[in-house]
Design a protein that fits this description.
Layout lengths: L6 H14 L13 E6 L10 H19 L3 E3 L3 E2 L4 H10 L3 H18 L10 E2 L3 H16 L3 E11 L4 E3 L4 E2 L2 E2 L7 E10 L5 H4 L9 H11 L1 E11 L4 E6 L10 E4 L6 H4 L2 H14 L4 H5 L8 E9 L4 E7 L11 E4 L5 H10 L7 E2 L18 E3 L9 E2 L8 H13 L2 E7 L4 E2 L1 E2 L9 E4 L4 E3 L27 H4 E3 L5 E4 L3 E2 L1 H4 L3 H4 L12 H7 L2 E7 L5 H15 L4 H9 L12 E7 L1 E3 L7 E8 L5 E9 L11 E10 L2 E6 L2 E14 L31 H8 L1 H11 L5 E3 L5 H16 L9 H23 L3 H21 L4 H15 L4 H10 L16 H4 L3 E8 L2 E9 L4 H10 L1 H7 L6 E5 L4 E5 L1
Parallel strand pairs: 1-2, 1-27, 3-4, 12-14, 27-28, 29-35, 31-34, 36-39
Antiparallel strand pairs: 5-6, 5-9, 7-8, 9-20, 10-11, 10-13, 10-19, 12-15, 13-14, 16-17, 17-18, 21-26, 22-23, 22-25, 24-25, 30-31, 30-32, 32-33, 33-34, 36-37, 38-39
Helix pairs in contact: 1-25, 3-4, 16-18, 19-20, 20-21, 20-23, 22-23, 22-24, 24-25
The chain binds one RNA strand of 82 nucleotides through helix 7, helix 10, strand 20, helix 21 and helix 23.
Length: about 900
Amino acid sequence: MAERYDHKSIEGRWVKQWEDDDLYRSKVDWSKPKHYALTMLPYPSGDLHIGHWFAMTPSDARARYMRMKGYNVLFPMGFDAFGLPAEQAAISRNIHPWKWTYANIERMRGQLRSMGTMFDWQREAISCTPEYYHWTEWFFKRFYDNGLAYRGEALVNWSPTLQTVLANEQVIDGKDERTGQPVIQKLMTQWFFKITQYADELLDFSKLDWPEPVKIMQTNWIGRSEGARVTFRTERGESIEVFTTRPDTLWGATFMVLAPEHPLVEAITSDAQREAVQAYQSAAARATEIERLSEDREKTGVFTGGYVINPVNDERIPIWVADYVMISYGTGAIMAVPAHDQRDFEFARKFDLAVRVVIQPEGENLDGATMPEAVPGSGVMVNSGRFNGTPSNGEKGRKNPAISAVIDWLAEQGIGSESVNYRLRDWLISRQRYWGSPIPMIYRQDGTMEPVAEVDLPVELPSDVEFMPTGRSPLTYHEPFLNTVDSQGNPARRETDTMDTFMCSSWYQYRYLSPDFAHGPFAPEEAAYWLPVDVYTGGAEHATMHLLYTRFFAKAMRDLGMFDDAAAIMQQHGRSPNALFDEPMLALRNQGQVLGAERIGDFIVATGEFDETGKLFASHVEVIDSAAAPTSVENGIAGELMRRVENVLSIDYNGEWVTVEVLPDAEVIIPAIEGVNRVEQLKHHLDIQRMSKSKGNVVNPDELVSQYGADSVRAYLMFAFDWEKGGPWDPKGIQGVIRWINDIWDMVTAGAPAGPSNPAAERVIRRKLHQAIEKVSNGLERFSFNTSVAALMTLRNDIKTVLRDGGVGSAVWHEVMNGMLRLMAPFAPFVAEELWACLGFPYSIHQQDWPAYDPAIAAEDEVELVIQINGKVRDKIVVPADISEEDAKAAALATEGAQRFMEGQTPKKVIYIRARYMVNIVI
RNA sequence: GGGGGAGUGGCGGAAUUGGCAGACGCGCAUGACUUAGGAUCAUGUGGAGAAAUCCGUGCGGGUUCGAGUCCCGCCUUCCCCA
């Protein structure tokens, strides 16, 4: 008897063997078709968690499949290594971000190797190395030189106490998450990329095989709206421009609203209103944008005392300030048409402003004074001077005759023009942080600025820095970094902002091509062969930001000629570069999220003394069997432990949560755990939710791998979930794949069966193999990994059945094992390699071809014909697979089940579905 | 608030996209083997019913010979928001 399956004795050995042999080294080879498979690179937080395994190992399985299908596959890995956590570790634990990050990367590399992935480590890229951020800076400079980077004002989270800017994730409920100090919204000068210049092109998804939801989210994010810009004039002569998608309602504007940050607010505010307006402005600064945009929030605002003339009817209307208007959207000013816009309506009703109907819906007679809500739909223009009677059909932009006519008239009159507005704003890349790529700009003494010369790149981050507990970037007080000279040799100051880490991840797919290339971000020879990325996998949470940014990068790089060399080389090799550089990733697939498992808390009886509030101070706590739970306890309670914070328990006592404080000298009894028990050993209830350390529901992949082996963990992750959906982790379910792998091990190591061969049995076993080839391949193509593994398990079951009945000779047995192991190789690369070697097939299984599917071998001789009466199954018979439609219908009508339900009636219709071998008799 | 998903046995999930609902696995049950079992093997497993059969894909309508799948209206829940 061969030895039992032991993952520990094989996995480490093959990792080393594969590395020694450079098995996964990917090199340009124009004689083979290429496949660039990319999976989102991790942030080096310290430990690989199960989510990384869930994201990466199925992607790896698919990359392996593509390789066996004959593609030259590039499947690289790296680290997105700049970012806030490293800086926070530096502040709280006094470790330099560099050291912290590198230690984490070292650790994670080891973990990544244990996964059995085919990453080509010679292409690893780490975004926080000077070799990498040299080119991040270079991109900035090129964008700046070409007008794609500029300085502008933006609202930032400003902590007045710390005198520093905070990232969005550092602000919770308008307060600094660490210190609890209030945070306000403040306008500051920041660096931007002109992503809006590409807004229209970014709306074009025609070249992309991307999930529909991602395309919809990006479309909404960009938020293109067509309308008009109209210029209003104040009584004192200032002009205020507004953007509106509904110029057909201009005659219904009864007031104007400016964002609190609008630059004209100060000028138009009357002295009487000044105090109120200023108070309102500072209150608005404390609200976040999400709060301000919330529609169910009570509308607030204040009258400025100023008036503006509506240019379409010369009416004098009041100007208000309200925070539901954003300075960053449109022009920061709106004409308010309360009759036809719900937000304006609520505002008007609250402050008792006029409501005038200008679009009368057909068959209705709306009255501004009494209508209960805004009516935004279609109708006929009224109260609109010369436009009265024009139909407004509810369509947007030029498709609406009313809007179209008004736009033309506005242009004629010179008071407005057709305009397109986007919700998308330019990409704010400034971060007031240390641990990011420096922005290579220099401020001269005269106040002008210039980019750092290309030969002086990269501007390196100084390493001798001290972190202040305020969180202020050390670059702002690091004199040697700050002081430099401009191109003329005059003293100058460096920019201290660093770049958003989304910058680094917008172009990493190019750095992987040639991580050591010193003459540019990537080598054109590599880019010509590998680009673009064929399939990109990662989390759906990146649907808008990261994926829009990287698309913007690709388009900007194309327009700045950065792909020209690659395109020329591509052409030399006879491949057309046409449209290949418009988009960075042709196909995209998102995996879901692995959630924490649900767990029932310990059932507890606690006794002690209650205080007057009903809180129990327990001197005795005992875990019992929930079936034996008493409904009432003298001087105590019994129920499931729902939560525990140190020694304070929350117990579900007959539906009510009771707080129990366990006294320090209390007796704790947990029968399942030997010895003296502690409160900390009690298990509390866990809901299905995201894994996090604080919830205590984290699954540690290292432990799983050491216990069950990487093959089992990989296969289980692929088997247990719909990959694009994810779901709760079930710790028991892994038994199924462990049994499967053990079965395969035992089956192969047992060797070919002795005894005579029987052609019928051999035909069956080969048929099952080929049916599996079809299903496994199909699952991999569709990222439906669970059905692929299920097909492999079905194959296992079928082979076991056939082998038990006997009749399979050695040659066919070897053929079937050979095919099955190759099908397994993407999912369980270690055990497949080991068993492959064990059968004496040539090394390595991962360099073999994918098994070829032969439909003739897979075809069944006989099939089951399903007979339905009015869509309900009434009988089933076995018929030859090549049965004709006439024969199938005749056989169906003759069945006992059909006869019984037809009761002698003549069928109205008989429908035959050949693909399903199904007859439906309609009576 | 806005945007995007998802609801199928006790559980994770299948269903060739309009064609036998529940593949595969977990769990559970019964039996076998064993000094022992959180091992292994066999059989069964959506619900009701003795059976014929009926009911079943979040809820309510609709289209169709036929609906988990398409349409209309709800409910619940998860994710994202510079």
